[in-house]
Design goal:
- The structure is a single chain.
- The chain is of the alpha/beta class.
- The protein has two domains: 165 residues, Peroxisomal Thiolase, Chain A, domain 1 (3-Layer(aba) Sandwich); 135 residues, 3-Layer(aba) Sandwich (Peroxisomal Thiolase, Chain A, domain 1).
- Helices cover 32% and strands 26% of the residues.
- It contains nine helices and 13 strands.
- Strands 1-7-6-4-5 form a five-stranded mixed beta sheet, sandwiched between helices. Strands 8-13-12-11 form a four-stranded mixed beta sheet, with helices on both faces.
- The structure holds oxa(dethia)-CoA (UT7).
- Oxa(dethia)-CoA (UT7) binds next to helix 2 and helix 6.
- The site of oxa(dethia)-CoA (UT7) has 20 residues, from helix 2 and helix 6.
Length: 310
């Protein structure tokens, strides 16, 4: 039996930090309002998506002991590609000196989980190592005169190497979904900034998280009590709290990096995963739920039986 598991991980954050107090000078908002309504305290901004992605990818490959010639595919989840065309994944492939296919995934904040699940499928088809990256330079498409969106977003990247292994591998259950009828509640037209109906995104996000988690749990034959650790998309702490009330998860079993990163869309889950691993919050044998939702609407969940030494 041939499965797959995550064997390496890494991140990249641009050095410039914008605090809520910095935003008070740019728009009609306060640090207190942003913290209370979102849980965000600061965000990193700057850099190009490809550079952040390549740096995170380099670290993940080093951790996995993966040489450039061993990578069979780059999957880059991003909502803020360097250019409309070509894709950004080939630039990352070139920056890392890889000799493989390279594909952008545009599934907004669910993109990295879509990539993780897709990597598992490619490994079933015979590939050995897939580099899965979530990277964003959302500050390039954020309107800092709009307090409804300008307070939320940040830049950064997180990457993982997913590698073939003997046995069933780590993926116990998964779910991917979308509902394009909600494309108008969060979007950016070509050359323009992000526009959002925040209240509606909030409502739909909570529903999507509950529905997707239940679908992945059903596939895995598990209940919420079986999950040791949860890494949700980092958009708003109140969204997570609302969904957890229904699902029965606690904030103690949840990794949040939102306070320092803001919403980094497709980078947010791998950034939080790296943080959980760096602080020893995930151990070999833990069942970990990775849960994304975002524009589209899209949503995706993966339940993994964590197998790497941390
Ligand atoms: O990856 C997915 C991306 N997007 C999301 O996850 C966004 C989901 N939505 C949200 O996170 C929240 O809806 C927001 C944080 C965007 C807004 O929070 P809210 O609790 O839904 O606020 P609201 O829009 O209902 O506004 C409440 C009040 C309003 O004032 P009045 O009408 O009560 O006088 C707003 O004008 O707060 C005001 N307000 C602000 N005040 C200070 C709205 N934005 C701000 C702000 N600073 N930045």
């Amino acid at each position: 039996m041939r499965g797959a598991r995550i064997t390496g991980w890494g991140i990249a954050m641009p050095p410039e930090v914008v605090t809520n107090f910095d935003l008070e000078d740019k728009m009609d908002t306060t640090d207190q309002w942003i913290r209370e309504r979102t849980g965000i305290g600061a965000r990193h901004v700057g850099g190009m998506t490809s550079d952040l992605a390549a740096e995170a990818g380099r670290q993940a490959m080093k951790k996995a002991d993966a040489t450039p010639d061993s990578i069979d595919m780059v999957l880059l989840a991003t909502t803020s590609p360097d250019q409309t065309c070509p894709g950004t994944a080939p630039t990352v492939q070139d920056e890392l000196g890889l000799d493989c296919g390279a594909l952008d995934i545009q599934a907004a904040c669910s993109g990295w989980v879509y990539g993780l699940i897709t990597a598992h499928a490619f490994i079933q088809m015979g590939m050995n190592k897939v580099l899965v990256i979530g990277a964003e330079s959302l500050s390039r498409i954020t309107d800092y005169t709009d307090r409804g969106t300008g307070i939320l977003f940040g830049d950064g990247a997180g990457a993982t190497v997913v590698e073939a292994c003997e046995g069933p591998g780590e993926l116990l259950g998964w779910d991917m979904g979308s509902d394009g009828a909600y494309s108008h509640i969060l979007y950016a037209d070509p050359g323009d900034t992000l526009k959002m109906d925040g209240k509606e995104v909030f409502r739909q996000a909570v529903k999507a998280m509950i529905r997707s988690t239940n679908a992945a749990l059903d596939m895995a034959g598990l209940t919420p009590d079986d999950i040791d650790h949860v890494i949700p998309h980092q958009a708003n702490i109140r969204i997570v709290e609302s969904a957890w009330k229904k699902l029965g998860f606690t904030l103690e079993q949840t990794t949040m990096v939102l306070e320092r990163t803001g919403n980094t869309s497709s980078a947010s889950i791998p950034l939080a995963l790296n943080d959980a691993l760096a602080h020893g919050r995930i151990k070999k044998g833990d069942k970990v739920l990775l849960l994304g939702f975002g524009a589209g609407m899209t949503w995706a969940s993966a339940i993994v039986d964590w197998q790497a030494e941390t």
